[in-house]
Design goal:
single chain, about 270 residues
C-alpha cells in the first residue's frame, strides 16, 4: 500500500512558494492592521487630510479651483490616492527585508518573497481605500464614478508594478546601506510635486512639460484622471506603455539584484 502520510508527501517548489506567500500575507496583514489602534483609520485619514489641507491652502493663497474638463476636488482625490498607492508600495517594499529578517532562518523564505508579498498586500489595501474614497465623495455629491473603469484598473496595475519594481531595487540598497532610506524619502517629496498630483501640468510652459514627461508617475496620474473624467484632456504625450516599460525594467533589475545578493542579504 502507498504511504498516505501527508508528512511524507513531496511538495512541488510552486506549492512551497504559494504556502510561503500565503503565510507571509497573513503575517503582513495582521502586522499592518495592529501596529497601533489607529492603523486602520490612518489608511483613510491620510488621503483625506491631504485633500483638506491642499484645498485650504489653495483657497488661502487665492488660487482658483478651475481644472479643464474636471471638478477640482475629484481631480485632486484621484491624483493623491494614486500617488499614495505608489509611494506606499515603494516605501513598504523597501523596508520589507529589514522587517522580516528573523524569517530567513527558514530556507523556504527568500528576501524577494517578503517584498513581493508586502507589495501585494499594500496594493489590495490601497485599492480598497480608493474604492471607499470614490463612494464617499460620490455620496457627497461629487462626480467620482470612473467613465472607463477597466482602463482605470489597468493604470492602477501599472502603478502597482512600478511601485513593486522600485521596492525590489531599493530593498537591496537599504539592506546594505540603511542610510539610503533617508535619501529615498527625500526623493519621494519632489516627485509628489513633479507628478502633477496637486498642480495642473497643462498650465506650465511647453518646455517644462517636455521635461516632466520623463517622469512615469506623471503619465499614470494623468491617464487615470482621463479614465475617471471623460471630459478631461491629459497632457499631450502621456503613454501607459511608458509606465509599463519602467515597471518591467525596475522589476527585472530588482529581481536580478535579489538573485545576485541573496546570500549576503540573508547572512546580514
Amino acid at each position: 500500500m502507498k504511504d498516505q502520510n501527508p508528512a511524507n508527501t513531496v511538495r512541488s517548489p510552486y506549492l512551497v512558494a504559494w504556502h510561503v506567500w500565503s503565510a507571509l500575507f497573513m503575517r503582513e496583514f495582521v502586522s499592518r492592521m495592529t501596529t497601533d489602534r489607529f492603523a486602520p483609520v490612518w489608511l483613510f485619514l491620510q488621503p483625506i487630510l491631504h485633500i483638506v489641507i491642499l484645498v485650504a491652502v489653495r483657497d488661502f493663497i487665492g488660487r482658483g479651483r478651475l481644472i479643464p474638463g474636471a471638478e477640482f476636488i475629484p481631480w485632486l482625490v484621484i491624483g493623491i490616492t494614486t500617488y499614495i498607492m505608489f509611494r506606499t508600495l515603494w516605501i513598504q517594499g523597501m523596508n520589507a527585508i529589514q522587517s522580516n529578517k528573523a524569517l530567513f532562518a527558514y530556507r523556504q523564505v527568500h528576501p524577494a518573497d517578503t517584498v513581493l508579498v508586502r507589495c501585494a498586500m499594500e496594493a489590495k489595501l490601497q485599492a480598497f481605500v480608493l474604492m471607499i474614497m470614490v463612494f464617499m465623495f460620490t455620496g457627497l455629491g461629487h462626480e467620482m464614478i470612473p467613465d472607463a473603469p477597466l482602463e482605470a484598473v489597468e493604470v492602477l496595475l501599472a502603478m502597482t508594478l512600478l511601485g513593486l519594481g522600485m521596492g525590489l531595487m531599493t530593498s537591496v540598497m537599504v539592506t546594505f546601506f540603511p542610510e539610503s532610506a533617508k535619501i529615498v524619502n527625500l526623493i519621494s517629496l519632489p516627485l509628489y510635486f513633479l507628478s502633477g498630483v496637486i498642480l495642473p501640468i497643462q498650465f506650465m510652459p511647453h518646455g517644462i512639460q517636455e521635461f516632466l514627461l520623463y517622469n512615469p508617475l506623471l503619465h499614470a496620474v494623468e491617464l487615470i484622471r482621463a479614465e475617471f473624467f471623460s471630459t478631461y484632456h491629459p497632457v499631450r504625450g502621456v503613454s501607459l506603455w511608458y509606465v509599463y516599460q519602467w515597471a518591467i525594467c525596475t522589476i527585472l533589475f530588482g529581481l536580478a539584484l535579489h538573485v545576485k545578493f541573496k546570500i549576503r542579504m540573508v547572512a546580514r
